[in-house]
């Protein structure tokens, strides 16, 4: 049995989790309603959370309980606005994965960004990031920083069920 567990703030992670659970015939579980002991009944756990300040939302559930049972498989998908880079992958792994989770694959998916739907706190954090980027010469900006600046203030949505194919391939092996 497979469980897709997710924590979503603005909806992108929820959309991916719903598509994934449907494609796999898996149970769909909301992070806030899941206790670690419930996860022991599953052979495969796929966890999804949004990326906020380098952390994967709600991943503490897995950090505190994995491996819950011998033979369980684990995969994690992280959803953010920026495209994946080797640096962002390395940072997510080091900040969010414990040694027990080291063998689990990390899938990075692009979500959506809508400044109009952000909380005041998130808008303030984004504005601080923009101020920092404004001070950085454009030729020194990383690709994701240039991309973010080009999208500033607009709603953008990169969610696509096709982005789930690598996870589906992993789950079916």
TrEMBL record:
GO BP term, pick one: heme biosynthetic process
Domain of life: Bacteria
Pfam families noted in UniProt: Flavodoxin_5 (PF12724)
Domain Flavodoxin-like residue range list: 2-149
Gene3D superfamilies named in the record: 3.40.50.360
GO molecular function ontology, one term from the record: oxidoreductase activity, acting on NAD(P)H
Signal peptide: none
Protein name (database record): Flavodoxin
Lineage summary: Bacteria, Bacillati, Bacillota, Clostridia, Christensenellales
């Amino acid at each position: 049995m497979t469980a897709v567990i997710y924590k979503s703030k603005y909806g992108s992670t929820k959309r991916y989790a719903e598509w994934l659970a449907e494609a796999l015939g898996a149970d769909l579980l909301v992070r806030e309603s899941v206790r670690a002991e419930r996860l022991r009944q599953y052979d495969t756990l796929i966890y999804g959370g949004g990326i906020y300040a380098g952390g994967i939302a709600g991943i503490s559930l897995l950090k505190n309980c994995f491996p819950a049972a011998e033979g369980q498989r684990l995969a994690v998908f992280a959803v953010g606005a920026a495209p994946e880079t080797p640096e962002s992958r390395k940072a997510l792994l080091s900040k969010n994965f414990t040694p027990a989770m080291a063998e689990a694959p990390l899938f990075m998916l692009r979500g959506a960004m809508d400044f109009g739907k952000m909380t005041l706190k998130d808008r303030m954090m984004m504005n601080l990031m923009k101020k920092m980027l404004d001070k950085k010469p454009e030729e020194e900006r990383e690709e994701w920083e240039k991309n973010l600046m080009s999208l500033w203030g607009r709603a953008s949505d990169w969610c696509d069920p096709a982005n789930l194919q690598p996870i589906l391939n992993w789950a079916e092996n």
